[in-house]
Amino acid sequence: MTVFFIGAGPGDPDLITVKGARLVEQCPVVLYTGSLVPKEVVARAREDALVLSSEDMDLDQIVAVCRDAHGEGKDVARVQTGDLSIYSSLAETTRRLDEEGIDWKVVPGVSSFQASAAALGQELTLPEECQTIILSRASGRTPVPEKENLKSLAEHEATLCLFLSASLIRKVARELKEVYPGDWPIAVVEKASHPEQRILRGTLDTIVEQVEEAGIKATAMIIVSKVLGQTDFRDSRLYAAEFTHGFRKARVAASRCGAGHE
Ligand code: SAH
Predict the structure, then answer these.
(1) Does the pLDDT at position 257 exceed 50?
(2) Are residues 32 and 59 in the same domain?
(3) Ligand 1 centroid to 11 CA: how many Å?
(4) What is the pLDDT of residues 37-78, one digit of tens each?
(5) I want to staple 84 with a disulfide (CB 3.0 to 4.6 A). Which of 68, 88, 182, 184 is the partner?
(6) According to the UniProt record, what class of enzyme is this (predicted)?
(7) Cβ(33) to ligand 1 under 6 A?
(8) CATH code, 102
């Protein structure tokens, strides 16, 4: 018996992996994050499956569902939004399952930061301009360690993807403006990949008003980066003809030199 933690993807039921979908179809117990995972994602469960929403459950109750299934030798599909590696409570749950001697595995999913980038049609890294993506959140009721404060993250000028921060947009814009000019690009994607997806593009000076006017408070990704909408950058070497050529030459040269000289 195994508890499978499955990344359900950002919302569109087609954005779960084939592996995740198969497990949802097969597991006799399906426990999904009702608040964020649309019903269509778990609609593929077997007819006789026990399908439960964890919306009103605390950690003890979630562990109890797993314990009961374990007692009956039934696999559990624990379906959660996006990918399990980011703000998912995976660690606190698996720590408890380990204490109970219950086996578990993780199946990755498409994260909402990826779905938001896709909605924007935006590569988050650009050759020679930006080669790093920082995934973080603004500190609100949930504290963020002081060393990870937004200002210090912004100083890298990497692409910033902020989860769980839409309701803190005023604070986010204020803190970022301590590092960036007011015309620095920012986008907010609400409900990426859902039918009701909304996209706001603006600058640090305009975004607070845009978000408040749109009434966006949750299920939104904030992306802050000089790469947004930028067209003035060099082609990457990935598809550059002379690079491929040079690489072949280099390999010939290396093999002539013999091992150890590459
Ligand atoms: N593990 C999830 C994140 C869970 S935290 C993942 O990998 O995506 C919940 C936060 O994720 C929300 O506050 C919001 O910032 C973001 N989020 C989740 N679904 C989203 C979506 N469809 N569009 C935009 N942001 C989303």
Answers:
(1) no
(2) yes
(3) 9
(4) 888 899 999 999 999 999 999 999 999 999 999 999 999 999
(5) 88
(6) transferase
(7) no
(8) 3.40.1010.10
Q: Does 201 fall in a domain? A: yes
pLDDT band at 227 (very low <50, low <70, confident <90, very high): very high
Choose between 41 and 106: higher pLDDT: 106
Choose the final residue of a domain: 107, 136, 170. Answer: 107
Provide mean pLDDT across the span 86-108: 97
Give the residue among 48, 44, 13 at the shortest CA–CA distance from 29: 48
Tell me if 236 is assigned to some domain: no
**DSSP classification of residue 111:** -
| pLDDT computed for residue 244 by the predictor | 66
Residue 163 Cβ inside 6 Å of ligand 1? The answer reads yes
Provide the residue range defining the domain that includes 168.
112-224
For residues 26 and 124, membership in a common domain is answered with no
Q: Ligand 1, residues 37, 88, 161, 219: which to mutate, most atoms within 8 A of Cβ?
A: 219
The CB-based long-range contact list for 31-35 (8 Å cut-off, 24+ gap) reads: 31/62, 31/65, 31/66, 31/76, 31/77, 31/78, 31/79, 32/8, 32/77, 32/78, 32/79, 32/80, 33/8, 33/79, 33/80, 33/81
Domain identity same for 100 and 128: no
